[in-house]
Amino acid sequence: MATVLEQDIKYLPGVGPRRAELLLKELGVGTFGDLLYTFPFRYIDRTKFYTVREVHADLPYIQLRGKIVHAELIGGTRPGQKRFVAYFSDGTGTIELVFFQGIKWMQEHLKMGVEYIVFGKPGDFRGKINIVHPEIDEPSNEKSGIQGVLQGVYHSTEILQNNGLGQRAFLKLQANLAATVAGKITETLPAWLLHEQRLMPLPEALYHVHFPQSVELLAQARFRLKFEELFYIQLGLLRQRLVRIDATPGFVFSTVGDSFNACYNQLPFPLTGAQKRVIREIRKDMGSGKQMNRLLQGDVGSGKTLVALLCALIANDNGYQAAIMAPTEILAQQHYESIAKFLEGTDIRVGRLSGSTKKKDRQVLSEQLLDGSLHLLVGTHALIEDTVQFKNLGFVVIDEQHRFGVEQRARLWRKSKGEHLPHVLVMTATPIPRTLAMTLYGDLDVSVIDELPPGRQPVKTVHFRENKRLRVVGFMKEQIKAGRQIYVVYPLIQESEKMDYQNLEDGYENITQAFPPPEYVTVVVHGKMTAEDKAAGMQLFVKGKAHIMVATSVIEVGVNVPNATVMVVESAERFGLSQLHQLRGRVGRGAEQSYCILMTGYELSADSRKRMALMTSTNNGFEIAEADLQIRGPGDMEGTQQSGMPINLKISDLAKDGQLLEQVRNIAFAILSGDSDLSSEKNALLCSRLKQIKSSMANYSEIS
Ligand code: ADP
Ligand code: MG
Is the pLDDT of residue 698 over 50? Predict the structure, then answer.
């Protein structure tokens, strides 16, 4: 039997089939429950009144108290032009109330000289402040109205508004719903937890979130609903982690032997403390008998590649092969080269495989992979083609994981034979704020390299507009004269691809004019080039034979040219914060002072200004990621779209509710530590509720 919350929304008084269709299409509301869980995004204090004189177009919804002094019908030759205008005055001034619909009703019912309360959002029409389609109430009605002290404001759409489902009608629906479901809502958290955390019971919370009778009650209601929302996500994720760990045995790599030591002992520098700690964490996982699923976060240049390599060597020491997968050809090549260099003089055999690997070479690789004579394979997603077979793959590293789809990643560990899955290390240089990581990767174990190798000078970042162009060119020449190299990066996005390529071409042209060959060598690298041309351009730059590399953001990840000291980002306002930070990470990799120059247009949006200010004030990737989360919200952050995780939550906000998130994660953790499969009587409700929620959510267990 369907519960009241599962009832079709069309049966709610005031809805009916036509509105039901609209609600579903516009807001995804199909049931009573959906509507009940459509919360106000803001509240208006119905005790506060503005005066007409104070009103300006930037104000949110406001209330005025006054009288209509005059009204008239204007226009009318063409449909849509006709409007009814009421002139509303409170003694401090007069404002126009404008109606395009319901004109006849207004004409018949509005009374002159009677005190009204007007409620609406001020707007600006040709320099004049007005309010379109305000609510108008007589003060006596107001007091007996459905709302409490605070009135909820709901997200709406133009289509809903044009179909009689504006704020006011929506509130009425919520009121009808509140009456319908009263006494029929069952609690979703166990009594002991409510008691322990002093949480408001669900029926009350759902009432007060829509019709708060006081600020205090609203706060309690919202807290309870946020708590529940975040709590069940964390309980689900942590439970999933336990199930995974329980169900997935892993190869036991107990020895650290010759391979590891051979490489370790000839490193040209000591590992940083953070690198050592992370290797210890990974070693522990790999020795546990359970499959490792670990995310390694570390700012650009923090030395993740070496960590991956050393752990791969531990796999080798235990008789297993390892694979390292990078998202682009260029990166795979760089990984291969730096790894080969670390392994020089050892007898560890490393191969490379990418889309451009010749058939003959593939053949050889294949044989060596199968007979086990190749220990380590570095490559692009060519690694996951079915034709690539290992003798015994025991450890997989996925660099810049957000560039790979879930399916690609899943294919990689199906390559392992038998019942054991290879240990998986996922690496990212896109620092993810803690709260987001806890949700996106809540079922993974997370390691963080939070320390850069010593001796790195922080990159100096400046923001210039076009008028400083000459200065920038002069500066670039100085740097080239001192033997350094320079990146110039242009934005490239799909929607404006054609124009972006044009800008890149123009930019290249300008640069070759300002930096004429043969004195200066400039190369171009972008996604439209063939793999060979790209590689050739890259190689010139990597080998120090080109002074300037003009590129699209293909160089954003991974590329390592320590002699490059200047990163010029063109149209920097078009890049996201984490992208800018990634780009900046391409310089500052050697001993010399490095610079990042952000070039923008003159007119910048408030958000762009914030981004530029942040970039010039900090080098800390985690700080930047945190700010990015605050500015853009979780849904637009890099790497979150593909995840399938519910990060756009109904009431919680990962940018603001970090503390609560930590709290509920700890509570969930404590519950599971005492009762890992939630089988005790005390946790019966949690168990059944979790099942219910899970069946309505995507399976993201293969996120890593
Ligand atoms: P990322 O974390 O961005 O992948 P890389 O692994 O590319 O960073 O490392 C950046 C550079 O730092 C490389 O040239 C690498 O050889 C060097 N490096 C790594 N670890 C250390 C260390 N402990 N001390 C000094 N340099 C290091
Ligand atoms: Mg890297």
Answer: no
Amino acid code (one letter) for 117: I
Ligand nearest to the CA of 327: 2
224, 197: one domain: yes
With a Cβ cut-off of 6 Å, ligand 1 is lined by 269, 271-272, 275, 298, 300-306, 429, 453, 560, 589
What distance in angstroms lies between residue 474's CA and the mean position of ligand 2's atoms? 31
CB-count exposure of residue 111 (10 Å: 0-12, 13-18, 19+): exposed
Q: Which ligand is nearest to the CA of 589?
A: 1
Give tens-digit pLDDT for 512-543: 999 999 999 999 988 788 878 888 888 899 89
Q: Is the pTM of this model over 0.85?
A: no
Residue 687 lies in a domain: no
**DSSP letters of 276-339?**
HHHHHHHHHHHTSSB--EEEEEE-TTS-HHHHHHHHHHHHHHTT-EEEEE-SSHHHHHHHHHHH
In a domain? residue 130: yes
Q: What are phi and psi of 158, to 5 degrees?
A: -60, -40
Asked whether the predicted pLDDT for residue 603 surpasses 80, the reply is yes
Helix (H) / strand (E) containing 409: helix 406-413
Q: Tokens for 190, please give them.
A: 């166990």
Cis amide linkage into residue 431, ω under 30° from 0? no
Beta bridge partners of 99: 84
For a substitution probing ligand 1, which of 275, 276, 278, 306 has the most ligand atoms within 8 Å of its CB? 306
Q: Are residues 424 and 404 in the same domain?
A: yes
Range of the domain at 407: 258-449
Domain identity same for 440 and 477: no
Residue nearest to atom 20 of ligand 1 (CA): 303
Tell me how far the alpha carbon of residue 300 lies from the centroid of ligand 1, in angstroms: 9
In a domain, 252, yes or no: no
Say whether both 428 and 572 belong to one domain: no
Ligand 1 center–CA 222 separation, angstroms: 46
pLDDT category at 252 given cuts 50, 70, 90 is very high
Say if residues 354 and 326 touch (Cβ distance below 8 Å). Answer: no
Give the CATH number, domain containing residue 104.
Answer: 2.40.50.140
Ligand 1 atom 23, closest CA: 271
Q: Do 173 and 138 share a structural domain?
A: no
Q: 219 and 278 in contact (C-beta within 8 Å)?
A: no
DSSP string, 121-180: -EEEETTEEEEES-EEE-HHHHHTSS--SEEEE----HHHHHTT-SHHHHHHHHHHHHHH
Determine the residue of 263, 302, 451 to mutate for testing ligand 1's pocket, defined as the one with the most ligand atoms within 8 A of the Cβ atom.
Answer: 302
